[in-house]
Every structure is written in C-alpha cells, then in structure tokens.
Amino acid sequence: MVHKYLITGMTCNSCVAKVKSELLKLGDIEAAEVQLQSPQATITMGRHIPTPVLQEAVRKAGHYTIVLDEDMTHNRSNDVSNEGMINPSYFPIVLIFGYIGGVSVLAQFDAKGFDWMLWMRHFMAGFFFVFSFFKLMNLRGFAEGYSSYDIVAEKFPAWGFIYPFVELALGIAYLTNISPIGTNSAAFLVMGISSIGVIKSLLRKSSFQCACLGTIIKLPLSKVTLFEDLLMAGMSVLAIISILFFHQ
Asked: Are residues 10 and 100 part of one domain?
C-alpha cells in the first residue's frame, strides 16, 4: 500500500536525507520517496503504519512533523490559485512587506511632508528586524537551510549562524541612522551576495525551501526570493546615490 504525507520543518536536502533515513528504519516500510515539494513523502508499506508511529520516527531526525496528505486535502483545495494569481505560498511575505511598508508610512504621519528617503530607511530597518527575528526563532534550522544554496554558507557553514545577527545589526543601524553610507554599503554587499546564490539555484532549477523567513514560514526558493534580495540591494544603492548627490 502507498500513502502520501506532508512533512513540515524540512528546509534542505540534508533534512530530506535524515527524514528518509529514519523512515526506512521502520521494518514495514518498503520504500520512501521524500522531497521538498508537496506532497513531500510517498511511502510504500508492507502493512499500514499509523501516523503517530511515523511521527515518532521523523522526530528522531529533527524538528519535523508528518501528516497524512488526505488530512490536508480540504485545506489544500482551498489554497489552489487560479492561473495568473500569486501563489498562496507567498502570501506571508506579501503580508509582511505590506505591514512594513505601511508602518514606514505611518511613521511620518505627523510630519509636514512625506520624505521618501526617510520612508526607505524605515522600510529597510523594518525588513532587517522582521527577517532576522524569524531566522533567530530556529537559528540552527535556518543555518542548515541557508547553506544549501548560499554561496558563502556553502563553504563556511558558520555564516548561516552569523547572518541573522548581521541583519539585526543592519536593522539597528538603519533605525538609528548610524553611518548611512557604511550601512547602505553593507546592506548592498550582504543582499548582493545572497542574490548570487539564489540566481545559481534558480538556473540549476534546484528544489529548495527559501530560508529568508527561517523555518517558521515555509516559502519555495523562486523569483520572489530573488526579487526580495535585489529590491533591498537596489534600495541601498538609491540611498547611497541620494546621500552623495542630493543631500548635504
């Protein structure tokens, strides 16, 4: 008999390998195909194995949860998007960007005029604060997922543990407006390098989960991820140009 399951918590191929290994240790499992894309596990069994038994197995591999795909059928049917609409998987990041952008506007509510530079600085501060927060919720999980596609973290895994703190520092620097040129230069460097890894993975058509929101909110690595990185890199360049040529 064959059953399909959804597994949450996996962020990279290393996670896939660990989960598959633990599942195959169960004697009645004849084959297990595990992947990052949903449905994430197709399991062939000699006899039916209750989901709690499978859950106990995947928990040995890490902080993962397995649910019978049939249990999610109703929820997934409501999530199917029509052609041309935004994939529901991206709703969290769209909502987050909307909140950050809105708060950045409200921050100037009592001002006499609207300052785009101030808005952009507040937006970037909010971006780095929020994104570092989600990464720090599960630092080890983020580091493992990030090392699967980032060009620096691939060679130096410690970078995955440092990166969220770099984002946090950038958020503080933007909010306090400390050394604007240095802050924007650092942001451009960090986001520019990050985008290179995303581009390489997209060109290889690799199947990875985006680690931009850590392991709490799962997003597919896609052009949306690239847009996010390039947007922040581009805004940092605009800020540098404005500071150098239009502000005293």
From this structure: no
How many Cα atoms are found within 13 Å in the side-chain-facing hemisphere of 193? 13
- The single-letter code of the amino acid at 56 is E
Residues whose CB is less than 8 angstroms from the CB of residue 165 and which lie 6 or more positions away in sequence, other chains included:
132
Of 54-63, 82-91, 185-194, which gets the smallest average pLDDT?
A: 82-91
Instruction: Determine contact, residues 59/43, Cβ cutoff 8 Å.
Output: no
Identify the CATH number of the domain in which residue 48 sits: 3.30.70.100
Residues 25 and 123 in one domain: no
Give dist(CA 14, CA 239) in Å, integer: 39
- For residues 119 and 33, membership in a common domain is answered with no
Range of the domain at 56: 2-78
Q: Which residue has the higher pLDDT, 10 or 233?
A: 233
Please report which confidence band the pLDDT of residue 186 belongs to, taking 50, 70 and 90 as the band edges.
very high
Q: What mean pLDDT is reported for the chain?
A: 82
- Statement to judge: residues 118 and 211 lie in one domain: yes
Asked whether residue 224 carries a pLDDT value surpassing 90, the answer given is no
